Amino acid sequence: MGTAERKESLRYLYDKVVDPLGFKFTPDAALAEELLEQEVKLEQDLGAPYCPCQMRSRVRGEDMRIVCPCIPFHRAHFDKMKRCWCGLFVHKDVTDPDSLPQFPPDEE
Length: 108
Ligand code: SF4
Prior knowledge:
This protein is mainly alpha-helical. It is 42% helix and 6% strand.
């Protein structure tokens, strides 16, 4: 499967996963495209669509927590920001993702 096709299949799958969690894709289409592209590359290189914005520990059990969409593992943090760490997903009521705060998890 080519990169463009894989991006579209991830988009379809992610939409189904994040919707019941109260999230949607960012309205910033260019950012979404860029992040999906990076995830497909990570999947091709490392075997899973890891988060492009979080460091991998190389401990498989820990790294599973940052396979996209990682929202269930970081729910309290992301709900407080109304966005995921990368900004690929935002709460459904968000129309201006640039206005959202971002802070590290230890400030939850
Ligand atoms: S922070 Fe966002 S883009 Fe990164 S893995 Fe989690 S849900 Fe995906």
